């Protein structure tokens, strides 16, 4: 740290991204990326946009917002786009965290980081012992409510009926539902947008649409809520979504059947993985995301992580005591999941 750093940032606890090592080829099951490549059409659209990089990107993201509005059947002034959904979460914490924020104590790590960064008092509510979310303590929170649905890293889904109760019980706060993983078998709460102007649904192209590196997130909210996010965007970085990314997003939406087909394959591979790991003595949550959350009856979470890494397979382990027995394993291609199962079987055989 330099002596010049603003004192208010001295104690910031940064977000730790999953590792992206370059030392050897790994089977990467640690950051919930898609195993499926981009289509030719998307690559071509990006190449075409590249010839125009001389110009600033469209700060209104007009074409992309219109395509999202059409795809999700919402008015265009209910759509916001950002540089990944992290960018949108950042703006949402700034915009709606004035009275504080409340979120589950085990959830996406960035919520704590953003609260900290913006000096927003955070209330972290423990999960129930089975890792599910009890919505009772969120009643009349009088502060921003943030729920990842499905939750990370547990993969557990909260039914839309419960989200509707959260919206009714918090009429004076924004309820932000982070649907980064909703395409993998969950039911979106987006239809509630018509009735609840305090709802903000945040989504991303990173997980289900193979565009993690492009950095593209989107959100749906009432026109007034979206206008607040725009105000912060234009006060921070009006060109937050570059023109290559806008082109990639637009081309991806033009053949959205591919997204659906890829998600179906991920769901099949998830079912395969759950059943194979159960046979190996793992306990798994009922994940509705593109990862499983698994605990071995013989190896610690740390051991699973470390020894898979030695075998060239990356998974994610979190040090928090409540979940230290578990590892989070991204669902990749069938070949990758078969390699994972083989590697785990070998590890367990070494144990005996
Ligand atoms: C991956 C993830 C994000 C961030 O996604 P980007 O759009 O790549 O910034 C947001 N929320 C949750 C719960 C995630 O897992």
As a percent range, the share of strand residues is 5-15%
Poorly predicted runs: none
User: In order across it, which strands form the biggest sheet?
Assistant: 2-8-7-6-5-3-4
User: H/E element string?
Assistant: EHHEHEHEEHEEEHHHEEHEEH
Average pLDDT confidence is 97
Account of the protein in words:
It is a single chain. With 352 residues, the chain is an alpha/beta fold. It is 36% helix and 14% strand. The protein contains 10 helices and 12 strands. It has helices spanning 40-50, 62-72, 84-96, 110-117, 160-169, 223-234, 243-254, 257-279, 301-310, 334-351, and strands at residues 27-28, 79-82, 101-104, 122-125, 144-148, 175-178, 199-204, 217-221, 282-284, 291-296, 313-314, 326-330. The strands form 3 sheets. It has a 7-stranded mixed β-sheet, sandwiched between helices. A hairpin with a 6-residue loop joins β9 (282-284) and β10 (291-296). α1 (40-50) packs antiparallel against α7 and α8 (257-279) runs parallel beside α10. The longest helix is centred in the last third of the chain and has 23 residues, at 257-279. The relative contact order is 0.16. Pyridoxal-5'-phosphate (PLP) binds at residues 32, 84-86, 108, 148, 152, 178, 180, 204, 206, 212, 217. Pyridoxal-5'-phosphate binds next to α3.
């Amino acid at each position: 740290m330099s002596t010049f750093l603003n004192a208010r940032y001295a104690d910031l606890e940064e977000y730790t991204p999953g590792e992206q090592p370059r030392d050897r080829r790994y089977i990467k099951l640690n950051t919930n990326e898609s195993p499926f490549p981009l289509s030719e059409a998307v690559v071509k659209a990006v190449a075409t946009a590249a010839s125009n990089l001389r110009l600033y990107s469209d700060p209104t993201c007009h074409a992309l917002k219109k395509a999202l509005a059409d795809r999700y059947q919402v008015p265009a002034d209910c759509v916001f786009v950002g540089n990944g959904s992290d960018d949108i979460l950042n703006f949402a914490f700034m915009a709606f965290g004035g009275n504080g924020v409340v979120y589950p104590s085990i959830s996406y790590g960035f919520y704590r980081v953003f609260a900290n960064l913006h000096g927003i008092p955070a209330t972290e509510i423990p999960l129930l012992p089975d890792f599910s979310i009890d919505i009772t303590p969120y009643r009349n929170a009088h502060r921003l409510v943030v729920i990842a649905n499905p939750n990370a890293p547990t993969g557990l889904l909260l039914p839309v009926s419960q989200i509707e109760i959260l919206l009714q019980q918090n009429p004076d706060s924004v309820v932000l539902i982070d649907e980064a993983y909703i395409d993998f078998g969950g039911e979106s709460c987006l239809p509630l947008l018509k009735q609840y102007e305090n709802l903000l649904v945040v989504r991303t192209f990173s997980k289900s649409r193979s565009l993690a590196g492009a950095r593209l997130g989107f959100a749906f909210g009432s026109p007034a809520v979206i206008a607040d996010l725009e105000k912060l965007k234009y006060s921070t970085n009006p060109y937050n979504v570059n023109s290559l990314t806008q082109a990639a997003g637009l081309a991806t939406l033009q053949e959205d059947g591919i997204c659906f087909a890829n998600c179906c394959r991920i769901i099949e591979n998830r079912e395969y993985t759950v059943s194979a790991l159960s046979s190996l003595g793992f306990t798994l949550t009922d994940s509705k995301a593109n990862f499983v959350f698994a605990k071995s009856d013989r190896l610690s979470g740390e051991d699973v992580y470390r020894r898979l890494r030695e075998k060239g397979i990356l998974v994610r382990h979190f040090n928090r005591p409540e979940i230290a027995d578990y590892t989070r394993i991204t669902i990749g291609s069938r070949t990758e999941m078969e390699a994972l199962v083989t590697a785990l079987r070998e590890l367990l055989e070494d144990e005996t």
